[in-house]
Amino acid sequence: MVDDDATQRLVCQKELEAEGWEVTLASDGLEALEQIRKKKFDLVILDIRMPQMDGLEVLGRTLSASPGLPVILYTAFDCYRDNFLSWAADAYVLKSPDLGELKNKIKTLLEKE
Amino acid sequence: MVKPVSKKVFWTDDEIGFLYHLDEALHSTLDLDNLFFIILTAATAGPGLSFSRAALFLIDQERKNLVGKMGIGPANGEEANRIWSQLAQENPSLEELFSSYSRLSREAEFHRLVVSLSLLFQEGNICWRSLLTGETYLLSAPYEEGLLPDALKTLFPGPQLVVTPIPGRREAVGVLLGDNAFSGRVINERQVQLLVLYAQRAGNILELIKTNQDLKEKVQELEEANRSLSEARQRLLRSQHLATIGQAIAYISHEIREPLSAIGGLAKVINRYSKDSREVKKESEMIYHKVIHLNRFLNRNLSFARFGEQRKRPCDIESLLKDTCQEIQKDLLAEGRKEVAFHFRLTSGTPRVNADPEQLQHALTNIIENSIYFITGLPYGKITLETGWNESFVEVKISDNGVGIEQSDLEKIFEPFYTTRSGGSGLGLAFARQIIEMGGGRISATSGGKGKGTTFTVFLPREKKGESYGKDTDGR
């Protein structure tokens, strides 16, 4: 789970762990790529607006390093939806106080695996 | 016998005096029939020319027919005696004669016969010849073969008949006819000359009246164009205004959504996993619901930020309305409101509309939510949805039985930031109108007044057969 906002990371961790998933957190793109290189993940949740390296660049690098690794873009902005870089992601979920949609997307993508 | 008449003449004082009165009368009117009446009266009046009868024919727009416009004079000897003895008794002045247009009898036989005539071009027909050559002719019965069509021969049996053209700006526009049927007095050259002069006068004023009418039409056209221009300008200003508001909302919403989702998520986490008291659980739950509400508000208004382009395609309005109401009903039930009833009076076979379904649904949602606000608190809130159509538009009527709107506020409700609702943004109906107008439709509201409900009427353009879809159209 990659997000520069600590609250957002905390909420995701609590909620997703309650679903029985193991969650690893990263606070920026470089840290995330580092983790992905070291360890095998089943799925990546990526914020887009982050300092240093934005989510879309992280997405590109992740996919070239680990092709086939499912990625969900998780952002407060719907303007990236039409950006062709986002098309490479498996899902695009708008940030919401209710994590229902995010959880459903995760379930669907993990079942596909 | 036909005799062209020479035009050089010197007028006597009496004749000049008469012409002066005639001109004065002619200039006093801008009405064609009144003009005809004055000219024909001048031709038949005792103080004027004393022709027994006079008639006026004008050429139609295609220059194909000479059409009878007016005739003055008796149809037979008996009528002639009656009229002349009456006139001899009354002895009216010229002014009185010219201003007695209201007394013109459209039932008089001679007039009826004249206006029933329409003379097609005929080689040799003396009326057409006069019109085309500009010459004046004096005819004496028995007329040569082909000079007059039978209808005119019956109308003017002689002994003499004068035919003179009515000049227009470029070419003659009609002919003036005068005869001496019942007086039997021989028509002299002077009478003919005067009739020519009357016809010329009539031609001048006729042009004046036509120019005046053309001008009036032009002015009307210009006023019309001006009005639609200013309406278009209003619409443009409104749309720019709303676009700016939309951009501002988009910016603010995005900035707020990020922390909002964190706050709401955290409230949920506290609620679910905290081991603290029930009070904390209850209060974090309240935070969560408030945040969800705010988030929904942002999402809804955000969708307007992008209303610049409409992706139009044929949509089924019935299912669109039902879906919209279902969504709203779901939200209402979630808030615990069960008192709102939707009544569908959808006409089966309603044609599809040409619209951006997503945006149209937003517009409809806004209108219906507005209506729901109006019935809030009523024990029997009812919203009725009706459809109908004409050849170019589908009509959707959304009515409520709620508090109603004052007449003076009806136009204002579509203005941005105008609201009477506590907690209303004042944007819902403004955006609804924008979406509908950008799609080529229109919306209006009517209300029976305070307490008598409100009806929103929306006209949406019908699907156009044979138009290609899939392309982005801006709708205007």
Topology at a glance:
The complex is a heterodimer of chains A (113) and B (476).
Chain A: H1 6-18, H2 29-38, E1 44-46, H3 55-65, E2 71-75, E3 91-94, H4 100-112
Parallel strand pairs in A: 1-2, 2-3
Chain B: E1 2-4, H1 13-27, H2 32-44, E2 53-59, E3 65-72, H3 77-90, H4 94-98, H5 109-115, E4 118-120, H6 126-133, E5 137-140, H7 150-155, E6 160-166, E7 174-179, H8 189-273, H9 278-305, E8 313-315, H10 317-334, E9 341-345, E10 353-355, H11 357-375, E11 382-389, E12 393-400, H12 428-438, E13 442-447, E14 454-461
Parallel strand pairs in B: 9-11
Antiparallel strand pairs in B: 1-5, 2-3, 2-7, 3-4, 5-6, 6-7, 8-10, 11-12, 12-14, 13-14
Structural description of this entry:
The complex is a heterodimer of chains A (113) and B (476). With 113 residues, chain A is an alpha/beta fold. In chain A, 42% of the residues lie in helices and 11% in strands. Chain A has a 3-stranded parallel β-sheet, with helices on both faces. In chain A, strand 1, helix 3 (55-65) and strand 2 form a beta-alpha-beta unit. In chain A, helix 2 (29-38) packs parallel to helix 3 (55-65). Chain B is of the alpha+beta class. Chain B folds into 2 domains: 2-216, GAF domain (Beta-Lactamase); 309-476, Histidine kinase-like ATPase, C-terminal domain (Heat Shock Protein 90), CATH 3.30.565.10. Chain B has a 7-stranded antiparallel β-sheet with strand order 1-5-6-7-2-3-4, sandwiched between helices. Chain B has 12 helices and 14 strands. The longest helix of chain B has 85 residues, at 189-273.
Could you write a compact summary of the structure shown?
Helices cover 42% and strands 11% of the residues of chain A.
Based on CA atoms alone, the radius of gyration of chain A comes out at 13 Å
Alpha-beta content class of chain B: alpha+beta
Number of domain units of chain B: 2
Number of strands of chain A: 3
* Fraction of residues in β-strands of chain B: 15-25%
Which word captures the global form of chain A?
A: globular
Uncertain runs of chain B with pLDDT below 50, 5 residues or more?
A: 468-476
CATH class of chain A: Alpha Beta
- What is the N-to-C order of secondary-structure elements of chain B (H for helix, E for strand)? EHHEEHHHEHEHEEHHEHEEHEEHEE
Catalogue the unreliable spans of chain A: none
Strand arrangement across the biggest beta sheet of chain B: 1-5-6-7-2-3-4
- Count the domains of chain A: 1
**End-to-end gap of chain A:** 18 Å
